[in-house]
Amino acid sequence: MIARLKGKVWESWPNRLILDCGGVGYEVHVPQIVVDKLNPVEGQEVSLLTYQHIRENAHTLYGFAAKEEKDIFLLLVNRVSGIGPSIAMAILSGMPVGQFKEAVVNDDSKTLSTIKGLGKKTAERIILELKDKVGVAETWSGGDSAGGSLSAPSSSQEAELALLALGFKQVDARKTITVALKENPDASVEDLIRASLRGR
Hints:
Elements: E1 4-13, E2 16-21, E3 24-29, H1 32-38, E4 45-55, E5 58-64, H2 67-79, H3 85-94, H4 97-105, H5 109-112, H6 120-134, H7 136-141, H8 155-165, H9 170-183, H10 189-199
Parallel strand pairs: 3-5
Antiparallel strand pairs: 1-2, 1-4, 2-3, 4-5
Helix pairs in contact: 2-3, 2-8, 8-9, 8-10, 9-10
C-alpha cells in the first residue's frame, strides 16, 4: 500500500497530479483543497499523504496535503454506506474540512447538499452514519469555542478520529487511547495511534 509520496510535479491538471518520484511517474487524484493549498506547478517538489484504492480493473491513488483531509476521506469511504472515493473527493473539493465537520455536528444537510453531486438524501445519510453510528460528532464538537466554531482537536481527539477511520469502534478507540495516555501522558497523535494498534 502506498501511504505517502514525495516528488516533483511532472504534470498538473485540475484535481490530478503526476509526481516524479525517482523517475517513476505516479498519477494522484487530489481534491480542490489540495490544489488550493499547494498551487502545484511543474518542477515543484510536493509531499502528499496517499490512499491507494484497489479494484479489479484499476489501482487509483488519492492524495492529501494534511492528515485531517485523509482522515475525513477514510471516514466517508469506510464508514458511510454508498460513499466511494469519487464522492468523498467531491466533498473535500466542495467545502473546507472545518465547515464539513460543523455541518455534520449541526445536522445541517442543507449545507452539505450544496456540494456538487451530493443530494439531500446522501447528505442526510452522511450525517446519520457519521454522527449516530460512528459517533464523530461528539469528538468534533468537543473542541467548540464560545463562538460555536470548531477549534483544533486535541491529540487524543485526532488519534480517535484516525482510529475511527481505520475501522475501530468509538468505545474501543477511546479505551486504547486512555490506556496509552496513562502510560505516556505526553504521547503524540502518532504515538497514541501506534499504541492503540499494538493493543488491538
